[in-house]
Amino acid sequence: MVVWNFIWGRIPQALCRLIGLVLLVILAASGPGMVGTASAQETVTSAVVLMYHRFGEDDYASTSVTMEQFEAHVRELTSGKYTVMPLSKIVAALKAGTTLPDRAIALTIDDAYASVYDRAWPILKREGIPFTLFVATEPLDQGSSDFMTWDQLVEFQESGLVEIGSQAVTHPHMPLKSNARNREELTQSANRLQEKTGVRPTLFAYPYGEASRDVMTLTQEQGYSAAFGQHSGVANSTSDMFYLPRFPINVNYGGVERFTRLVNALPLPVSGLTPSNPTLPTEGSGNPPAFGFTVEGVSENLTDLKCYHSDASQISDFQQLGNRFEVRFDGAFAPGRTRINCTMLGHSGRWRWFGMQYYVPPE
């Protein structure tokens, strides 16, 4: 101690203060604050992708939002908490595994209904919010009054705020079509959009969110860089780039409290998903599916993870084996679309969310 005091007494006071400050920083970093920060770090790149269809169309509650709801969504998104980005930049980051800002958000709108241009566009343009519009080309070629016009679509493209993606030509149920027909839908829609806007689309949205392993492979082969379904969940670098999730927004699920929960959601990264094919057989082996997945890079609250599904059948068995989860059902999924959502509360009161949609063809 005497020796230390002797040495310390010969160090200039300014240097002493600097050393003391460094020691304080080190002590603070080793305390509870550092632990909390480390536990909040995410191991994967992720973003929330939102999906809209119609705006202010009361006759279509399942696909529309009220203008009051949409204005509230925009106020939340422009509150300074979020980074709303072009979808193509989010896809590029997910594929490369590069870092995205916390609360990265992308807006997508399907089908190019007239209310997109008449009601949503003035608000989005005013706020400078980028978005992606997925377009089925046949309704625009037919000049239907329920849809946007090609001139309006070109205006979107030239604004610098809007990316145009494809949703095929006729908006078909793609798992029911032949490979040859689906190839035509994928290529002809891209050709038509390039002809009218000057830009070839690289992003695709499956009509009705319905896909199959064959359809996903065809989509990739036709030059698209990513494709999206209509199932909930946070897109992340473990997601299948040709079946990426989006949170559907409509009147019934468009309240600002739920919206805020969605745009603050965290990823639930998974691997080993079974079944990986989004289309199930109508009957026999494979329906009901032996649904399972392994959670990657998350250890918090795994015992609190719960899964829910929209089919009339019931979950008959739910097992956790370490970070592997297996879910069984007591009956076959009915023809049509069934969505499964698995959620758990993560850090900072934010929900982790993984979802999947399965399609059963009609009998």
Structure notes:
With 363 residues, the protein is an alpha/beta fold. Strands 1, 4, 5, 6, 7, 10 and 11 form a seven-stranded mixed sheet that branches. It has a four-stranded mixed sheet with strand order 12-19-18-15, with no helix packed on it. A four-stranded antiparallel sheet has the order 13-14-17-16, with no helix packed on it. The N terminus is likely disordered. It folds into two domains: 223 residues, TIM Barrel; 88 residues, Immunoglobulin-like (Sandwich), CATH 2.60.40.
Main β-sheet: number of strands, strand sense, barrel status?
A: 7 strands, mixed
Kindly report the CATH topology of the largest domain.
TIM Barrel
Mean pLDDT: 89
- According to DSSP, the number of beta strands is 19
Task: Please give the CATH class of the largest domain.
Answer: Alpha Beta
End-to-end separation: 87 Å
Q: How large is the share of residues in beta strands?
A: 15-25%
Domain module count: 2
User: What value does the Rg take, in angstroms?
Assistant: 24 Å
* The named CATH superfamily of the largest domain: Glycoside hydrolase/deacetylase
In the predicted model, the low-confidence regions spanning at least 5 consecutive residues are: 1-40
- Topology order in helix (H) and strand (E) letters: HHHEEEHEHEHEHHEHEHEEEHEEEEEEEE
Structural class: alpha/beta
Per DSSP, the total helix count is 11
Helix percent band = 25-40%
CATH architecture of the largest domain: Alpha-Beta Barrel
Question: What shape does the CA trace take?
Answer: globular
Quick overview of this protein structure:
With 363 residues, this protein is of the alpha/beta class. It has helices spanning 2-9, 13-29, 32-40, 67-77, 87-96, 114-127, 137-142, 150-159, 179-197, 213-221, 256-263, and strands spanning 46-52, 54-55, 64-65, 83-84, 104-110, 131-135, 162-166, 203-205, 226-228, 235-236, 247-248, 266-267, 270-274, 291-295, 306-309, 315-321, 324-329, 336-345, 351-360. It is globular, with a radius of gyration of 24 Å.
